[in-house]
What we know:
3 domains, four-stranded antiparallel beta sheet, Arc Repressor Mutant, subunit A, seven-stranded mixed beta sheet
Amino acid sequence: MTKDINRIIDELHIYEKKVLNAFEQLGSRLSPEEVVESQKMDIKAVMSAAGSLESKGLITVDKKVDEVISLSSVGKLYAEQGLPERRMLKVLSENDALPMGEITKKASLDKSESKIAIGWLMKKRWAVIDKGTVKITEDGKKAIGKGEDDELLLDKLLETQKMMLFNPSKLVQRGYDLLVKRKGLIDVKKTTQHTLVITEKGMEILEVGIDLVDAATQLTHSQLKTGEWKSLQYRGYDIQAEYPEFYPGKMHPLRRIVEEIRDIFLNLGFTESRGPILESAFWNFDCLFQPQDHAAREMQDTFYIKNPQHTKLPETDLVTKVGQAHENGGKTGSEGWGYIWDEDVARQSVLRTHTTGVSARFLSENQPPLKMFSVGRVFRRETITYKHLPEFHQVEGIVAGDEVNFRNLLGILKEFYKKLGFEVRFRPAYFPYTYLSTECEIYLPEKESWIELGGAGMFRPEVLEPLGVETPVAAFGLGIERLAMIRLGIKDIRMLYKSDIGWLRKLPITQGVDLTD
């Protein structure tokens, strides 16, 4: 035990020694101010040393928080002149009933004070209002000349200036409860008192004795050069002490998953492309063979922009071919949608609802063979819930070439999900701009269930022919937030956008780790 005590003494900082020395001089219970006075220390140094001593079990720090109340300028005025409802009650005591406008005037109250007075007259049951007339009640008659708890507390505060709320009387507590319901009548300030108390272990330290010598914790160049370091007394270090937690800067988990997806496609030989967030309905819908009366194009699903309300269309030849594909199928052999296509509808400005427009633009500017992907934000008129947001991220990709087929598409998607650590399966689906079409589902072992994560398919001829593409094109797209929720083990999508520093700090730094652990 003595060996342990000596080790603790050896590890004490000079400020800790001084605080313990104050106990030896003054007693077992001290205020920080008494230590400051006896040891000629700064109050911050005393509290810092006290915290360290408490962590070592040598002292305890008792903390008592008191509330001190005092009158504001408005509270002082009401204490001197009376509360608005009291002044109104006084007028009522002489008349029993008066119209609201007249009683306000006789009580010398302004409009705001009158509302306050009427409200509190009703709360205290001193009066009732009947067809614009304020009438005194029996409770109101009894209250004449008798101060209520809030009024008595106002009088007491006017006399004493300040009052501690530690263990208040019932009268003070009732008065306080009423006054805090009003804004700006009383000021409440919290005061904290600390008491330092030495423990048995601390007393053992004092019995052994401490030397008030400042031990060295680091060496200077001069001390090393002159050899002074040989004669210094050194402070010991507790190698078992807990180290502080560090929270280094790191990439946001959603951004990390986006970068992981980007790396996968780049390593698979894809080229990354980007497109505008503000898009024309032509590239967002029409070029993808989505009919102009499709439900997804309604205001309930799409954000339409007022300024600019319209955008420019691409070259006339492409616009004409897209219109023909909608009306009669163009040169594809299809019947199209069988309606008259409207250029003005195609000119509408929208916030893109998917990134597939990037794929269409890329195909119009590049010749197959090609592999392209894009990652970006998309927007839909969704109600914010635990699983839906009006703004989210989507990754989109296409593969075009003479030999590309539906089996190639499934193989690419299997490889992609495998690199993310998921088992995937496919089931038939319908999309206006692909055929064959499929939805991708991944397996969740902990839930023993499958969840849909994206759609894919082969672009229809009605999409490709206007763009001048003669080879098959496989396309896919998936939402990233739902994937992030699975990887991060969260059930509310809004968590991805909350500034929850505690949650963010707990997430690992390393890129590509299994975040569900």
